[in-house]
Amino acid sequence: STLKSRAEQGVVTGRAPLTPIQHLLFDQNFSDPHYYNQSALLQMHDRLSPVALESATRHLIEHHDGLRLRFEKNASGWRQFNAGLEGGTSFTNIDLSWMPGYLQSRTIEEISELLQRTLDLTEGPLVRLVLFELGSEEAQRLLLIFHHLVIDGVSWRVVVEDLQTALDQAQRGVPIVLPQKTTSFKEWATKLKQHSQSAEMKE
User: For a disulfide at 18, which of 6, 22, 88, 147, Cβ 3.0-4.6 Å?
Assistant: First the structure.
């Protein structure tokens, strides 16, 4: 589409206004706003290469500017900005193959709980992918954690599809090429704010 062809394809950085739903979330005054996320634990049918998954994760976060959002609070309230590519590590490979099977599930739960509590709105990352190695006879587990400020139900489908694409390409050893970007989160948030202040909206 015309909108797609004009969308910024590079790494978008800089300030972006909060969207109405983000304002609503911060208005809840959660005691721990860092710990408000969506997660999924997947059982892998085929074995994944940790190197390929790390590369796919890096490309995914580079491609989706919204996954690099950061938030800070000052006297006037919360503000957000798109960070560059220098953020914290989002991928971790954890080997639990040495551990008895009956302890592995409990350990995965404990690590998942810990990692969900270590998302940092200001410093990042707000995305974590963890590949658990459970031994040659047991399927790997892939833990996906996204802070709710950077993902919603619709975004999950898009992000997971792009992760699968990037992972497939990385595992085959070909360059990772994801679909063209559409409107950046920064541009969307800006246009949404402008629209909310328009004469049409006030009517």
Answer: 22
